[in-house]
Amino acid sequence: MDGKMLARLGAIVLVAVAVMTTVIELTRKGDSPASSPVRILQPASDPLRGDQRRCQQLGQKAAYDPYCLRVWAETRNRFLGRTPATASPAPIEGR
Fold first, then answer.
1. Do the domain assignments include residue 61?
2. pLDDT at site 54
3. CA-to-CA distance for 71 and 43, rounded, in angstroms?
4. Contact criterion met (CB below 8 Å) for 71 and 48
């Protein structure tokens, strides 16, 4: 058997094994990760989300809207993990 014939035989065997493996995988009826149901966690409805959408639809006007400025401040605080200040300190007299 010469080298070319051996290479052809090896290629044929490799293709046959690949085809058989594909057929076996396609006909398998067991639990595969692709066929198992996936649970998607949906967070509870967030009222801040609706406010963000409203401000988004305002476009450039939202930059001057006090309500949108408060919504963005709340969003920023949530993202950064900060708690909002309860009250601003009273001004010191004499300054």
1. yes
2. 92
3. 19
4. yes
Report how far residue 80's alpha carbon sits from residue 77's, in angstroms, rounded to the nearest whole number: 5
Q: Which domain holds residue 68?
A: 47-80
pLDDT of residue 89 exceeding 60, the answer is no
- Residue closest to 75 by CA, chosen among 60, 62, 88, 87: 62
The reply to whether 93 falls in a domain is no
Helix runs in the chain, H state only = 3-27, 47-58, 66-80
Look at residue 64 and tell me if it is in a domain. Answer: yes
CB 58 within 8 A of CB 68: yes
SS3 87: coil
Tokens 């035989």 belong to residue: 9
pLDDT bin (cut points 50, 70, 90) of residue 95 is very low
Question: Tens of pLDDT along 24-61?
Answer: 988 887 655 555 566 777 667 788 888 999 999 999 99
